[in-house]
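pasting for ref
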Amino acid sequence: MRTEFPSPPFENFTVGPFTIHMYALCILAGIAAAYLIGASRFKKRGGNSGDLLDVVLWAVPIGIFGGRLFHVFTHPGDYFGVYPNLPETLYHVVAVWEGGLAIYGALIAGTFGAWFGARLANVRFVSVLDALAPGIILAQAIGRWGNWFNQELFGEATDVPWGLKIPVGNPAIPQGFSPDSLYHPTF
């Protein structure tokens, strides 16, 4: 008997008029975990967790902006020359709710945001980095579960018992693979 790790049957759910994306919930859970771990570490080193919150409130939105910008620059064909006018193009460039964030851009811009926030909060930037680093690693791992919900990040075809079943028709599946193939989970 073949075992497999099934893909989730949904990527999002609705609450009233709102669509809640599981990937977004995973990212938010990762951000919360990073802050909570960072605040604990910062406080143990004599810092004020309120100061760290001030830094994080700069780092997170700037990081999200950077993640979106990096995605747009690495996928220009999805945005430029596709829409009939500049305002519509710009709308889709900033529409993070449509998907498309790149972790590299988020980390680069988030680091800049943390530096800026640390200067405003009058705390040492290296102390902020030291406090947040382990939580950011955990945040990345939690955020990767969002890729499982989106069924967008997986490895080569495999026959290991924890192989991931990806539904037929997923555009991320390489051409020529059997519909019964299992894939190595890389999230």
